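Regression test case RT-17, inverse folding.

Input:
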């Protein structure tokens, strides 16, 4: 993800680095998918260690990715910051739910990290031909529109999930 962030920054000067982002995201997906599978196949499970290292690495990687987007010419830095905040808030909700309910779900409405990587790759391809989009007579950066949609989507996921888990916990711990 550090490489993807650096490629976003470099793509401001040379769009060919957009291909580097796709390669970096593919390597990230492969590594992220492989570590747990490899531990299970080798029967070398360390659930708490693996959970911790996997998700702290994801958080740091997302920071680098959003930092690269913020430094690029493809997304307004405030949109990138909004995405980072929305991601961190949703992550906090997921980790709290894992702790208090013992229920871990990283995907919402069949949309998770793999789908986000694919969407970002498709967006990078679209940047070659259409970095600016027109909506209602106004021109916007393609990634600003996608980022705003992402912020709204993650905010809805956060609200829905938080309300659902709050009700679930309230029912589990009713006062007499």
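Golden output:
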């Amino acid at each position: 993800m550090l490489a993807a962030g650096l490629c976003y920054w470099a793509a401001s000067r040379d769009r060919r680095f957009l291909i580097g982002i796709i390669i970096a995201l593919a390597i990230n997906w492969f590594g992220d998918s492989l570590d747990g599978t490899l531990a299970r196949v080798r029967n070398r499970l360390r659930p708490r260690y693996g959970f911790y290292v996997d998700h702290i690495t994801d958080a740091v990687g997302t920071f680098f990715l959003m930092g690269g987007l913020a430094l690029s010419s493809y997304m307004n830095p405030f949109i990138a910051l909004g995405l980072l905040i929305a991601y961190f808030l949703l992550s906090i909700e997921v980790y709290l739910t894992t702790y208090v309910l013992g229920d871990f779900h990283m995907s919402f409405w069949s949309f998770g990290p793999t789908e986000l990587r694919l969407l970002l790759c498709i967006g990078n391809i679209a940047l070659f031909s259409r970095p600016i989009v027109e909506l209602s007579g106004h021109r916007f950066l393609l990634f600003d529109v996608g980022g705003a949609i992402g912020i709204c989507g993650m905010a809805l996921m956060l609200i829905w999930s938080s309300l659902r888990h709050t009700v679930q916990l309230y029912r589990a711990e009713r006062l007499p």
